[in-house]
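Table S2 (continued). Query chain:
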Amino acid sequence: MTTELPLIEKLSKLTKAGKVKWERGIQASRLEYTLPEFSVVLDRKLRVGGPEYSLTIIGNRGEIVDRFSADPVPEDPSQLEELYEMARHSATGTREEVSKLLAVLDKIA
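Corresponding output:
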């Protein structure tokens, strides 16, 4: 069993539960989750055939521990894309903003 899928599943579960708070990176497509020992970076690069998603684990000294993209996760490559979207919502506060918009629209209706 590869380590990529369990990592993606764990991060997805914790992100969905609101226990992992992602932040925007210096590039618009980059999302980061930082712990004392590691940082996890999700990235989306636009390609001709569609976006490519990647996950990079960085050690506390700045060294790359591991990096993989959706392609080497043959079990379900869309899981990395789903994690990216959940992380993006976490980093941008999308749920909260949509809730605010709904409240404003409720006042109009």
